[in-house]
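User: For my dataset I need records formatted as: sequence, then structure tokens, nothing else. Please produce one.
Assistant:
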Amino acid sequence: MKRSLYLSLFVASLFLAACAAFTPALQSANAAKGIITGADQTSVYLPYLKGKRIGMLVNQTSVIGKKHCVDSLVRLGVRITKIFGPEHGFRGNASNGAKVDDSIDPATGIPVISLYGKNRKPSKEHLADVDLMIFDVQDVGARFYTYINTLSYVMEACAENDKELLILDRPNPNGFLVDGPILEPHLKSGIGIFPIPIAHGMTIGEFAQMINGEGWLPNGLKCKLKIIKVANYTHDMPYELPVPPSPNLNTQQSILLYPSICLFEGTILSQGRGTYMPFTVLGAPLLKGKYAFSFKPVSLKGMSETPLHQDTDCYGLDLRKYDTSVFLKTRKLNLQWLMELYAAYPVKEKFFDMSQSKQMGNFDKLAGTENLKQQIIAGKTEAEIRKSWEPGLSDYKSTRKKYLLYP
């Protein structure tokens, strides 16, 4: 029991150290480009908060400068009555998919309501002592990254209870990428609820406008929005996240690879969960002899407790030094890794069989379509696969333009 506790504390400390290590250099790099997040523009929105009881949907990425925005705003005299936490929790060190309980924030004494446990959205009771909700969470621009789902649930709750939502916008590190099949309605799930491509190419503020504008809230609801825009930002501008957005996206490399690599969570291949290099490596035991590179997933408290192929050597691709600037040049997801590894895998019928897996699972739900799996199995070319995404992808790009806040 003590060993488990010490390991949990050790991994949590590593994650917090990673957050601290991310912050100074990358904030300086972003500042050199003139990028100022919505949260950092306190002079713009502090007067609007005066006299209001504030609820905040935040996590570890919600920083003003180098400090958590809750701590900063409390020090500035803002009356925060409730904190709401998404997947991975308020402090961001809960594992992927792990339920998070309600709690009290020890630093401020403010009640913390988990929206990744028994509640998926704030209730009327939760919002009874809230005049204005604030949403400040860093997204990474992928449909299966659950923060856009949380955004919609918060918007729904605000609309139902006549509360305004203030969004402190942040850049999308994959904001230049709009690609992938459109989610088919019958494949809606917790890892995808909107008819959008895998990489949606929008900031949280822009996406909130799309949710309202496209009527995606139930019963024709509209959420009253106020957005503090990012200053000096364009979608083509590289943005290095100052804080890891979740425990398994712990490097800038993993964040840029994620939209392409997360599809492998619906296969028999490990994406490096259970290592300190998740979403930068791909492999499986049965690829021994076909690839020289190997890694061994282990149980890591706070990151991946029961990773696929735990305690077994996996062989495959090392993408830690892959040139991610290719994505900005091509504006395309990488399908070649999926095609290559399927071709290399010796037991084809097991490649997409996740019945014994403890991963996210269902490849079709991740892809948003049943076609992609069948196309890979049939040996279709990338050009043939991409052609099948039309006209849906082009239609989405046209719709997206209506809601953009940045060039």
